[in-house]
Amino acid sequence: MTSPAIRIVSATKRYGSLQALAGVDLEVAQGEFFGLLGPNGAGKTTLISALSGLARPDGGVFEIMGYNVVSDYRNARRNLGVVPQELVFDPFFSVRELLRIQSGYFGIRNNDDWIDEILENLDLTAKAGANMRMLSGGMKRRVLVAQALVHRPPVIVLDEPTAGVDVELRQGLWQFIRKLNRDGHTIVLTTHYLEEAEALCGRIAMLKSGKVVALDTTENLLRRFASHSLAVRLDRPELAAASGGVLAANGWAEFPLDRYDDLEPLLARLRESGAKILELRVGEADLERVFVEVMSRA
Amino acid sequence: MHERLIGFRTLLQKEVLRFWKVSFQTVGAPVLNALLYLLIFSHVLDRHVTVYGEIAYTAFLVPGLVMMSLLQNAFANSSSSLIQSKITGNIIFVLLPPLSYREFYAAYVIASLLRGLFVGAGVLLVSLPFVELPLAAPGWIFAFGLMGGAILGSLGVIAGIWADKFDQLAGFQNFLIMPLTMLSGVFYSIHSLPEFWQKVSHINPFFFMIDGFRYGFFGQSDVSPWLSLAVVSLCFVFLAVLTLAMLARGYKLRA
């Protein structure tokens, strides 16, 4: 049987009075594009730190590709690439030097062919000889991604990789990460840009106060927690309530829609009530609504 | 080459490159400092002071200055590298790869030792035009140079991991390393001190490092070089065990 890319069982971690992880169980299959969402302080970065060996959990089991991150840390770390949240860099070296050094840490020499390919894919070739201090924030972010990939890890964790990054770079980065996922890499993403998670992730876990409060495919989460909605502007807004609507500003009223099939009967009810529809918008279910809903229930 | 050896060697190379790329500051400046000490002290004291009966003060001073520079720079290398990496956050690039804590320790200490040896050799070279130095027992010079550099490299790792801010590291350097170095007999023989201060000197491990190192040049020292070697070796073993224990626990590195 193939081992999961990531397996976390009963993970706990406390910092002083703060329970950063309160019994997290999580499994990510090989080849998945997995999202880890949660508000600030939910425990996402602690979970990633414990998984990557940057923090020591108080309890629980962490495995990467079947390797325990404590007892078999060498194999576990060889299988994991982490793009950290903070924009950190070593000011003494050029981009290429840093990537060669990072390859060496993982026991790889003569890695220039793969380094060139990464640089090319991340549009960094022209900056290969530049010192890290001379690069813009976006460029530094790309180098962090490159550093996480030098040892071709099957599992890649990206901790808010697009924070403070411009649209063009974000698009380019996602294109490359999608390609890596198509090539078989498992991707775990944390982000505050929920539309990114919705577009990219096949499955999502939501964390709150160190616990997993929702875990399902993106499709199921959207179906379970968020409905579509119909927004209409009526000539007589006061008639909206009788049909189950909620009044909003400027004569607009909102009606929840579980399915598109409910749209026609709702419009018929409005017509029958004597209201005339002046404008109409159908709102799609989105992850932001799911997120708000899940967090308010948890 | 074995994968683990490549990882260790890369970290060592990176630590050496880190100081070599700014060698004007990390090697050149301490050599110049030591040269200034030499010029000033030798000018003022050479005609008035002899040590061990017939050794001119300038000749006596040079091995002390070489060892002092070696020790201070070995400490500065590991401590500054670690605190910079911790404060800027780039320490994670060393913590994420499959490097063991022993490889981590060995790479930082050997790089520190190398910087110490470079600076020590530089001080010795620039001193040679001013003084005639005998080489009575070169083996002791190497033994104490290596042990001293390794001890201060280990202390640098401890200080770099323990300190959360640059001023804490400066405190470690100014209130521990500097007094122990200056009160170790770099500039004088402890026989010229009152009895009380002679006794105090005997609890300073830096005294044994410098005294043993000096024995290698003159074949004379304040205490037996074997005693010095025993003290220095014990000191190294204690610090190595302490540093390795801190690293194995992940103290302040893997929170």
3D architecture notes:
The complex is a heterodimer of chains A (298) and B (255). In chain A, the strands form three sheets. Chain A has a six-stranded mixed sheet with strand order 6-7-8-3-9-10, sandwiched between helices. Chain A has a four-stranded antiparallel sheet with strand order 2-1-4-5. Chain A has a four-stranded antiparallel sheet with strand order 12-13-11-14, with helices on one face. Chain A has two domains: 6-223, Rossmann fold (3-Layer(aba) Sandwich); 227-285, 2-Layer Sandwich (Alpha-Beta Plaits), CATH 3.30.70. Chain A is an alpha/beta fold and 298 residues long. Chain A has helices at 44-52, 73-78, 95-105, 112-121, 137-149, 167-182, 194-200, 218-225, 263-273, 287-297; strands at 6-15, 18-28, 33-37, 59-64, 67-68, 80-83, 155-159, 186-190, 203-208, 211-217, 228-234, 246-247, 252-257, 277-283. Helices cover 34% and strands 28% of the residues of chain A. In chain A, helix 8 (218-225) crosses helix 10. In chain A, helix 6 links the parallel strand 7 (155-159) and strand 8 (186-190). The model of chain A has no long low-confidence stretch (mean pLDDT 90). Chain B has one domain. Chain B has helices spanning 3-20, 23-45, 57-88, 92-95, 101-127, 138-162, 166-182, 195-201, 205-218, 225-249; strands at 50-51, 55-56. Chain B is built from ten helices and two strands. In chain B, strands 1-2 form a two-stranded antiparallel ribbon. The longest helix of chain B has 32 residues, at 57-88. With 255 residues, chain B is mostly helical. The mean pLDDT of chain B is 91. In chain B, helix 2 runs antiparallel to helix 3, helix 3 packs across helix 9 (205-218) and helix 5 runs antiparallel to helix 10 (225-249). In chain B, 75% of the residues lie in helices and 2% in strands. In chain B, a hairpin with a 3-residue loop joins strand 1 and strand 2. Chain A binds chain B through residues 15, 49, 52-56, 73-75, 77-78, 80, 82, 84, 86, 88-93, 98, 101-109, 147, 151, and chain B through 1-4, 6-7, 9-11, 13-14, 17-18, 21-22, 85, 88-90, 92-100, 250, 254-255.
